[in-house]
Amino acid sequence: MMRISKLIALFLVSWALLLQSSHAQRSTYNFNPGWKVKVGDPVQAATAKFNDSDWQKVTLPYAWNEDEVFKVDIHDLTTGVAWYRKSFVLPKGAEQQKVFLEFEGVRQGAEFYVNGQHIGRHENGAMAVGFDLTAVLKPAPAENVIAVRTDNDWDYREKSTNTKYQWSDRNFNVNYGGIPKNVYLHITDKLYQTLPLYSNLGTTGVYVYAQNINIAEKSAEITAEAQVRNEYPVSKSFQYVVSIKDMEGKEIKSFEGWETTLSPGQTATVKASERVEKLHFWSWGYGYLYDVYTTLMVDGVPVDQVKTTTGFRKTAFKEGMVYLNDRVLQMKGYAQRTSNEWPGVGMSVPAWISDYSNSLMVKGNANLVRWMHITPWKQDVESSDRVGLIQAMPAGDAEGDVQGVRWEQRKNLMRDAIIYNRNNPSILFYECGNDNISESHMSEMKQIRDRYDPYGGRAIGSREMLDSKVAEYGGEMLYINKSADQPMWATEYSRDEGLRKYWDEYTPPYHKDGDGPPYKGKDASSYNHNQDSHAIEDIVRWYDYYRERPGTGKRVSSGGVNIVFSDTQTHYRGAENYRRSGEVDPMRIPKDGYYAHQVMWDGWVDPEKPRTHIIGHWNYEKEVVKDIYVVSNAQEVALFVNDKSLGKGKQTHRFLFTFPDVAWEAGSIRAVSYDENGDKISEDEIITSGKPHALKLSLMQHPEGMRADGHDLALVQVEVVDEEGRRCPTALDMINFSLEGPAEWRGGIAQGPDNYVFSENLPVEGGVNRVFVRSTDKAGKISLKAVAKGLKPDTIDWTSRPFEVENGLAKTLPGEDLPSYLDRGPTPSGPSYRLSRVPVAVRTAKAQVNSDEVKKSYDDNELSSWENDGALSTGWIEYELEREAEISEITMKLSNWRNRSYPISVSIDGREVYSGNTEKSLGYVTLEFPPTKGKKVLIKLIGANIDGDAFGIVEITGKIEPSGEEKKTKGSLDIVEIEFYEKAE
What we know:
The chain is built from 7 helices and 60 strands. The protein is mainly β. Strand 18 and strand 19 (251-256) form a beta hairpin. The longest helix is centred in the first third of the chain and has 22 residues, at 2-23. The radius of gyration is 30 Å and the shape is globular. The termini are far apart. 53% of the residues are buried.
């Protein structure tokens, strides 16, 4: 009987699922089309009958000050009041249903009106907000009018508290005003699953998560929870049904929860769980996603269905390392401004452009993007899911901890962001601050995580937090941290800047490396690099983290993120009015640093795929002799010019190979890389291009073609090429564009007046540039022609597709049906690193002074240290190891590490093995010497400290970044952490 009952239940579930598509009563509409905007504050603009006939017609997302993107300094962006209005008609039958409006975000504060009635306010400028419109809407065929008054004043204050938002910051949070994100209209039954919009609605929606994950067996227990509300005047009983479909649309599992009855007005959370087999786990570069359908069945009929697109993966944060699907992953990626902006359009790009940009990070072998200061908008969150890019998700802040109302604002934003984004598998880290916060504040944030996302497998932490007992990860800015406990990764490093236009000093326009104005009176040469030196700096800076990677000891670094991925309209230190720290330019054209990272980062920890890249080009003038740099993850690199060998390069910083004084000659330059056995494993070649001959246009657009929705973009690349079609890397020709058809010119960027923003005439740089063309709401043929003096012109044609909008509503949703990036494949099996050295623990230590604090020098806490009293005679400490070992390396973090060199001697059991000055560093220094057996190690100061800043890091205030406590004494020995190693067998 039990078996028959189960068969009947399964039949009923299957039958119910067949009915879903035709009977489910939830509809979600794209609410972006058909808006009008007016900059200013006209009287009566909130009323339904207000005459807006002369307002600008736009399709959202749309920032009303988008024309200033990259044209002006971030501080000079126009602010003030702007109104948005839209008319729409509800679908027939909606008068008996619930109607909700979802804004992914407005900037900064906004007042919302429907048919002249005020429905609410939203002010944090970062997160989504929802409104219940049911009571204020007119049924079809009557027209409804929504009006939104936005105010993006930098100094906007929360109305109820008269308090500014900490994250409305003039340096970091680019002020694209109005409604720069997507808007949706949801129509549901009166018995419905709520939306994940806590702000205003106070609801939490659906939560899908995996537990008891078995990677080897490809199985997990999947749970789907839903907050359900009954707004009928009578009690309602329903069955909760879950269906999981894979990326091919095939159902892989269906199951159901208990029957539930809700009283009128009651809200409750229901859930169902089942073990699921043959799963594809989401991974780095493998954006495998499932559609989870949760359905409310009343008397066998579906009345409400929600589709949640999510992925399943296993995480762990332990032993100083990050584990994804049981494999250690060192974090390698970028600290990117949340605005993620582009010239001419700001952040308000179509979803396929978000995928293009974010997938470039993955293709460059980045695995992590740390969005900075502000919660990322939903489009970038979902894009990262698709492309397999891990995210660190902040709430909102500027710098430093806060108290009172501003802390409550931060907590509320974190709560809203977690609820809104907890089903997105790419989020692995919740960030509570761009600087350290108190332990009590960290506990409050962790409680929010535990309440709303207890099973998401995400670590919560903050920058700094090096000795926190609450935070689950930490890491400083710029410096190298290590841990044997919670993972430490650098939240940003390598601030250097440089234009893509500047190859080197031998290439037009012959920019001398470092030339440019000072920054607030300080030397700014590090912020005016050529590509050669910028790429080399990238290699040098990453080596600091690679050297302390998993496999190098018990205390390790979990990597870090380079600031930034793409040049950004935020604070800067170089000659231009925007930041050029990106490894790609604002139009996402790669610089050489992008390829350097691609080589160094091609592996979960250790390099796994051989790669080689020659930095620069091979189109010089006669008699040029210059150093050639090659980045490779091989052991040796040989260089050939026209097949003539120039021998092996000098290897430094593991990945950099230098070939000095190479004489240019037309033809080929080729770098060949070899493994430790002398076998060729990869190569790179550059061939001299001929004289500039023609222009070449290339089109990038939505996979299904450009949509005539008034918002979609085409990205068009222009190149100067020779007769063979090869790009001419030294070309700087001015290009004149002409556009025909139903499209709007949005242009690109180049060095020059107003950065050539919106100009139809702009130059290529390094032989290439890109421009944007935006669709209108009319479909048709679009033609773009490019002309340059002395070059063969080129024309490219394409056709925009009709986009259906009825009564202000569209059924095609932003980002819908975009493909996932799966090229890296599932998480590989086997270890991701090779053990390179073995740590030998300290049993005890002694010193002449402060002997009760000697343990602080090896306690796995980088905020504690042992120091002597400043006298040269007391500058020693002796360590007794846990066992006799053949020590060959000592790694130390010394106080004031960036400014101070320590003359020291190292002896093992009385035999001196090292004598010299320690390097100034951004964290740790490693002393290497022949393997020496012993058990007692004496570290002794043998001379006066040598002081002087070795890095010259300038803060945005113009102040020099401090690097530890300055001391006047010259006999100081101050050890933060010390580690002893023997070679691995």
